[in-house]
User: What shape does this take?
Amino acid sequence: MFKGKFIDNLPKIYGTYTGGFLVFIILMAIAEQAGMSAKLIGIFFVAFTVLIYALIGYLSRTMQTDAYYVAGRQVPTVFNGMATAADWMSGASFVAMAGGIYFKGYGYMALLVGWTGGYVLVASLLAPYLRKFGCYTVPDFIGTRYGGNLARLSAVIVLTVASFTYVTAQINATGTIASVALDIPFNVAVYVGLASILMCSMLGGMRAVTWTQVAQYIVLIVAYLLPVFWISNKMGAGVFPHLMLADEVARIAELEAQFGLGSIKNSAADLKQVPKGLAGITKAHSEVNTTPWKFISLAICMMAGTASLPHVMMRYFTTPSVKSARRSVGWSLFFIFLLYSSAPMLATLSKLSLMDPNLATGIIGKSITEVQAIDWYQNWNQANLMFVSDFNGNGTLELNEFFMGGKAVVLATPEIAGLPYVISGLVAAGGMAAAMSTADGLVLAISNALSHDIYYKMINPKAETAKRLIVARVLLVLIGFAGATIAALEIQGILGSVIWAFDFAMSGLFFPLVLGVWWKRANAQGAVAGMLLGLISGTAYLIAVRNGYPGFWGVTQLTFGIIGSLVSLVSMVVVSLLTKAPDAATQRMVDEVRVPSGKTILGKQH
Amino acid sequence: MSKQQQHWEKTRMLLFITLAIWFVFSIGIFFFGAEMEASSIRPLGYPLSYYMTCQGSLGIFVILIFWFANRQEKIDEEFGYTEREDD
Assistant: This one.
């Protein structure tokens, strides 16, 4: 069917794949009409998509280092954009973001601005230069640019701390979705998720992860956009929700006033009845509800963190040229934009369908017993994601008497709005794709750094290719298991650990990476000081704040990267200036990196 | 000044312009959240503050990166630093 090389046939292959996926959705819809149970549909969706990813992973197996570490550097611009978007959009983006917007409104949107604005920094400050460098991993760049094993080791430490914090959250998310969709206990589901993740990455490394991530992007974007458009049209809110929901946003503000949002407070005793993790609507939907500094500091942390997270950066090592690395960043952000700009729309539609008494789906103002009798309420109440209680005893459900989990906005809205169950199955498959693709990228980033930078560059530089790749795979499995084990303990919520990961990465890596390209005078001593002191001070601040220290400058446990990166910048500059300037060879290397043409600094196989 | 220095000079200039635009739409305007909310400018009917966080800034970043990439390619071309196709 496909003649010629795989790379030349990509549009055809993924076109067929997308068509096949749509046919699968239609078949499931028909099966639902024919009486297939909701549970079975969910199992089919998750199992079918995961098997496809595993198949792609198997077909992409390789025994070559450049294929394993950087997908042979032949991933075309637009496809790399899709893969990066999947790599980037985690279970948190998919499952929790709309919920965050739903509950916290404007203050939460700093994350949207930060998680997109960061790509401008990636494109202009880093990606094209690191591509020209020709490194396999981010510590590979640090180690070669600054020279010395200490710099390399420090970079590996920061990378591991940041990525590991992130990956436990992703494995947690795959576990959550697998346990709901397949109806198995969470601590078993975590390992099912892990097995799926490893199937995609173990045999083919970066090459396999790339081609599964493209497939996962297609699933997750279809799964996110289809319900948003469908609900919007069903409600009569607008054919194209992104451009047409202004009336709905205004209507929510009107209803908030009518239902007395903010004027009625729940007593502490009442709130004790509410299951852990659920929240009521306490913030206005579209009002500016936070101070400028709170908004901006969070956005800054997310932006600098984006530009320092190794699993994102290493995606741009896989493009054929410097030029395509630069353009690829634009495509990545475009594909991310498609989902991020839809999340606020989903939050709006979800809130309005629950609140508006003029809609059949509205529950606020109905009698409590009536609400408690609704099918979907009972389902989600059982799943511990919804709760109502008649605090004031008047028999009707008030706005302050309705509680929901953040995940429910994405997971339950299709059902609330009266869409067929097939859509809920699709959403589960999308969430699984989002969490798996990010987990794959992260596990690979950590194990590649350990196998390439620690094992090959520091411990055993004479290792043969076959041995290096076996070590890489063993590490991949070990790290996956470590992540799953910690995920099974459920220490920190999904979103909290994701934000921490950004702060860790920013504290230790942002300035050493940027100054490595943009400041010739930066040397190894400075970089080591920057990475280690940045990471240590950021972590110390986080621990202090968690233990009751009030903090300063309004920096919270979500924005501790500001402290870490400032310490990193100052110590890096001071130490660099106090010690010897880099030698002539290093300076020439930096000059070379700044020019797109010519050979990469590091060879094709190294 | 050598060719390479000139090239870097121009590249740096482009970086500063790009970062200035980036700063305005990622940080600058959010100093004025309350003012944006009260503003009579309402893109597509949304309050300006809401619109910028949902679509406005995000869309500008997408366009900004493609614009930046085009400009940088022009600079590289001007100095003959464009990569060969077979690289």
